[in-house]
């Protein structure tokens, strides 16, 4: 069992990392601003589910395959970039609701949740980050390394949920004001589209 003080240090470090601008939190911000708080929260849960997969992968050593294979890394990277470009196109083409139309989410929570999972799993750098980050807080004297990695991953997911949920609430509230006008809706959709394109380029150009 990892020392409580060490876990607290790990948690605080994880919160800071989750707050720093990155692909995932910008993705959550864009979705919340475009589709509302519930959309951001659904995507956040999807991203957290993806982190569970990355945690298990690192714990059992599967992430080493991606780390050692340039082909595997590039494949996942370009799949993720292509998916982001698809989202950019969807945001660009998103319809604008008038004041007489019922304000309903464009996508269901299930689809937004799935969007978060795909976004996270299609980014191979998450596993590479876990491989570099988690071992710094694990030690054989605390017991099974596999159990420690899973424990640390769970704490990191908790920190991510807290930070990304806060981002969703703030960005969603900000977006609610803009969605009251057609011009503002178009602006939000165009900004989201450009953000997705930027994230796609950033992911595609990332190095192994």
Sheet/helix structural class: mainly alpha
The portion of residues assigned to helices is over 70%
The profile of the biggest β sheet is: none
Estimated radius of gyration: 18 Å
Averaging pLDDT over every residue, what do you get?
79
Order of helices and strands: HHHHHHHHH
Number of helices: 9
Strand content: under 5%
The tally of structural domains comes to 1
| Shape, principal axes of CA atoms | globular
Uncertain stretches: 98-105
Brief account:
The chain has 208 residues and is an all-alpha fold.
Write up what this structure looks like.
By secondary structure, the protein is mostly helical. It has one domain (37-94, 108-205). It contains 9 helices and no strands. It has helices at 4-19, 23-35, 37-60, 63-68, 70-93, 109-121, 125-133, 145-178, 182-205. Helix 5 (70-93) packs antiparallel against helix 6. The radius of gyration is 18 Å and the shape is globular.
Name its key features:
globular, 9 helices, single chain, 208 residues, mainly alpha
């Amino acid at each position: 069992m990892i020392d409580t003080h060490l876990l607290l240090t790990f948690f605080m470090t994880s919160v800071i990392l989750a707050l720093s601008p990155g692909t995932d939190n910008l993705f959550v911000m864009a979705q919340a601003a475009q589709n509302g708080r519930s959309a951001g929260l659904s995507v956040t849960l999807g991203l957290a589910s993806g982190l569970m997969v990355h945690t298990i992968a690192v714990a059992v050593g599967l992430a080493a395959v991606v780390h050692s294979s340039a082909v595997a890394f590039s494949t996942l990277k370009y799949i993720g970039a292509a998916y982001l470009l698809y989202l950019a196109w969807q945001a660009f083409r998103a319809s604008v609701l008038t004041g007489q139309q019922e304000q309903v989410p464009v996508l269901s929570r299930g689809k937004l949740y799935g969007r978060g999972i795909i976004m996270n799993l299609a980014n191979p750098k998450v596993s590479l980050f876990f491989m570099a980050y988690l071992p710094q807080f694990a030690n054989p004297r605390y017991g099974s390394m596999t159990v420690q990695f899973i424990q640390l991953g769970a704490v990191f997911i908790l920190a991510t949920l807290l930070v990304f949920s806060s981002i969703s609430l703030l960005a969603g509230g900000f977006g609610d004001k803009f969605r009251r006008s057609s011009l503002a809706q178009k602006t939000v959709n165009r900004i989201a589209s450009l953000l997705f394109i930027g994230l796609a380029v950033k992911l595609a150009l990332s190095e192994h």
